[in-house]
Amino acid sequence: MYPNKIGVKSSTGCIDLRSDTVTRASPEMRQAMAEAVVGDDVYEEDPTVNSLEERCAKLFGKEAAIFVTTGTMGNLLAIMAHTMGRGEIIVGRTSHIHRWEVGGYARVAGVCATTLPINHDGTISLESIEECLCVGDNHRPQTKLICLENTHNFVGGKALPIDYLSKVRKLAEPYNVKIHIDGARIYNAAVKHNVSVAEIVKDADSVQMCFSKGLGAPVGSILVGSKEFIDQARLDRKILGGGWRQAGHLAAAAHYALDHAIEVIKKDHERAEKLAKSIKAFNSSKIKVDDLNMTNMVLVTVDDPESAVATLQKHGVLAIHFDKNRIRAVLHKDIDDDGVEKAISAFKALV
Ligand SMILES: Cc1ncc(COP(=O)(O)O)c(C=O)c1O
User: Fold this and answer.
1) Where in the sequence of the chain do the CATH 3.90.1150.10 domains occur?
2) Nearest Cα to 265, choosing from 168, 157, 137?
3) Residue whose CA is at the smallest distance from ligand 1 atom 4
4) What is the number of the ligand 1 atom nearest to the C-alpha of 221?
5) Least enclosed by CB within 10 Å: which of 11, 104, 192, 222?
6) How many whole angstroms from 244 Cα to the centroid of ligand 1?
């Protein structure tokens, strides 16, 4: 048993490394939100939402897009629209969709899942996917969808290997099994591999990306895919109560976030690397960095995560107790170079 995902509560003045979801809108972003031209989005008349959806469809190289409240909603809509309540999905055992979305795929989308282990690099082994694909056996649920996560949160925000998706596609395509990417942090993956987001998702049928993580907007996700798929997702979004009205104020924040995405994410990666390397340089048996090949996250192994988190908090830094013996620190736009130095000093107290 581990504490809930976030654990300690934010206190003013702390360096908050619990997640990249904790960012606040900058004054410039707030200005853009205040000035947004808006309309009723259920009538598809909000120009700022419409332009965001068009922009994202192009950005991801897909036909269409829909702006939704959260990553959880985007993922659930993808599962609903791809499966239409039939069959099963294949999903990583430690993926967000399976572990942290309250089982929505079963309860709301009405499908079951084959869950498979996640490798150290965030992939699911191709052999195990192939073994589980089930099409045409009338005793078993038919595989409709494979869900991947890029970057993969549970292995510390690793970007999946660049050629992995096309290999999964080769397995799935002959059976008409679709591929959905939970790309809550797909920008981190694209920046890590130095490719465009369109390139990194070209073999996926759909992608969900969060504006409210490293991109720094307060709310919102985008779901992209074929026009037919997005039309279905739009109907399903209404079922979930996700048809919103003057959402252009939020879409304006998302536009602003996209304008600055690459520079912000690059900085986060540099700062995460600095923190990870500094902890490694302590050369202590009491605190070990899991891996240096990450994006904006640093996973650290300690003997007693609960007391490590408490010690960090005493030194003005918030991190989360991630699992049995690891804590997680996430870099984001509200942590500057000075914040990283403070974080390094706090981690030193764990040595
Ligand atoms: C990988 C991943 N997918 C999806 C989500 C869900 O996003 P939201 O909190 O906006 O529902 C998260 C949130 O932390 C995440 O880390």
Assistant:
1) 15-23+261-348
2) 157
3) 71
4) 10
5) 11
6) 20
Euclidean distance between CA atoms 283 and 271, whole angstroms? 19
| Fold that domain 27-257 belongs to in CATH | Aspartate Aminotransferase; domain 2 (3.40.640)
In ligand 1, which atom is closest to the CA atom of 69? 10
CA distances from 332 to 67, 250, 323 (A): 23, 20, 21
* CA 126/CA 140 separation, integer angstroms: 20
Output the tens digit of pLDDT for each of the chain's 351 residues.
Answer: 444 444 455 556 799 999 999 999 999 999 999 999 999 999 999 999 999 999 999 999 999 999 999 999 999 999 999 999 999 999 999 999 999 999 999 999 999 999 999 999 999 999 999 999 999 988 999 999 999 999 999 999 999 999 999 999 999 999 999 999 999 999 999 999 999 999 999 999 999 999 999 999 999 999 999 999 999 999 999 999 999 999 999 999 999 999 999 999 999 999 999 999 999 999 999 999 978 878 999 999 999 999 999 999 999 999 999 989 999 999 999 999 999 999 999 999 999
- Domain formed by 15-23+261-348, architecture: Alpha-Beta Complex (3.90)
Torsions phi, psi for 189 (to 5 deg): -65, -45
Question: Which of 265, 273, 280 has the alpha carbon at shortest distance from 197?
Answer: 265
Cα of 70 to ligand 1 centre, how many Å? 7
Does the Cβ of 71 fall within 6 Å of ligand 1? yes
Distance 73 CA to ligand 1 centre (A): 9
Task: Report CA(96)–ligand 1 centroid distance (Å).
Answer: 7
**71 C-alpha to center of ligand 1: Å?**
5
CATH 3.40.640.10 domain locations along the chain: 27-257
Pairing of strands 326-330, 297-302: antiparallel
